[in-house]
Amino acid sequence: SAMSAPSELKVADTWDKCIENTLRKVSYGTLAGALISLVLFRGTTSRCSGLFFGSGIGAGIGYTECRNEFETLEKPTAKDQ
């Protein structure tokens, strides 16, 4: 149990980073999608679809970076072996 505490802390820290990073990417994607839609499209539906597209792109980037963080967390380092 004492040996698993540091790895549990690493997992918890990684989750915190991932949630924060994903929320940031979704916010930036939504903002970028809104600005681009405001400039390019006239209709409300088109503008909303651009906004949702931007937030989806941000969520996808956040998910990918989070997955990579957890994959590197799983790989043993030379110090662990």
Describe what you observe in this structure.
With 81 residues, this protein is mainly alpha-helical. Helices cover 84% and strands 0% of the residues. The protein has helices at residues 4-40, 44-74. Helix 1 (4-40) runs antiparallel to helix 2 (44-74). The longest helix is centred in the first third of the chain and has 37 residues, at 4-40. The chain is rod-shaped, with a radius of gyration of 18 Å.
The residue-averaged pLDDT reads 87
Q: Which H/E pattern describes the elements?
A: HH
Q: Summarize the biggest pleated sheet.
A: none
Q: State the helix count.
A: 2
- Give the termini separation: 19 Å
Q: How much helix is in the residues?
A: over 70%
| Structural class by sheet pairing and helices | mainly alpha
Strand content: under 5%
What attributes does this structure have?
mainly alpha
Task: Describe what is shown at a glance.
This protein is mostly helical.
